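Example 3.2
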Amino acid sequence: MPAALLRMPNGLARRLFLDRHGLATAPRGSGKGDDLRAVIDMLGFVQVDSINTVARAHHMILAARRPAYREKNLKSLLERDRHVFEHWTHDASVIPTEFFPHWQLRFRRDREKLKGRWRDWRRSGFEEKFEEIRKQISDHGPVTSASVGADEPRSSGGWWDWHPSKTALEFLWRTGELSVCRRDGFQKVYDLTERVIPSAHLRPAPDVDQTVDWAARSALERLGFATPGELAAFWDLITPLEARTWCQTCLEAGTLAEIEIENADGTYRKVFASPETLGTLDDLPDPPSRVRILSPFDPALRDRKRAERLFGFSYRIEIFVPEPKRKYGYYVFPVLEGDRLIGRIDMKAFRSDDRLHVRAYWPEQGIRPSRGRIAKLEAELDRTARFSGCSGVTYESGWLRPA
């Protein structure tokens, strides 16, 4: 009869998960230079998003862990020091540049995938634009999608309706020939990869097995525990089959353990964890009781299903939901207290009026809006207002909604 699997209680699983996401200790640190690099390395990547209701997602993610962080600090790492680069994980993200060699696998796979998806290019003359774009950048320097193909028809549609030069530009970036050297406003500026990525990280690509091992192992380190599907989805570099094979190989070698994690509803599911991680469980810190407002794209919430299983917190962005059908609001922010997601808040920075306006706060079922808890939330709102460039907070009448 096989031995029973180790069972990890839900509270312990939450503490491990939050610890690996930099949310289990009091937020402190300079939020710049090497300290900021360490935060991004710990997370693995920081998703970039354009919505600026309060502040852009990547800035809110970093500020949640380093209140001293300022937007210019990330700009320095990306544009001056080249310690991070911008590319895709599950979405557009900033990623430590030391990981760049492993993105060569994505570049190779994307080249074939995108050529198949955009097969009409060859018939429509898109492909001949590749050399034209390369030469323009090589001879005249970085470009944006707005500065190429000036004589081509413009479209506000998706990739299927881009003008040829923009399509070629995107293809060259997605396949590694170009890199983002900076952003002007929120518009990407592209240059030749060899002029953006430091030469130390342009070494020959690791082989597929090396990248699979790195991707699965490094994802597990940052998640604490995971299924093969979660490992594959973390970087979105390897396939679920590659992740399953890696897990099975490591399990047979004794370098991985299969355990059961208790979900918020009391059920259990099987996951993998490293013996090293399991050896640290007694030393995990208790997350501080401070309230933190998180970006909807925070790494702790990126996997919505995982967050719901672990925290009992069901979250959906309602940007594309017609307003009359929205349950909460256009862009609602999750609220973390200790090891619990205690509610969500609808707020917007009105910078011309110098105020952060709170429309509504919905506590989760069973979370009592006590005087002390609301005081902590208001203190966090004051910090959020300052970070967003506003000096004060205003509240809509009836902003505190029933649980």
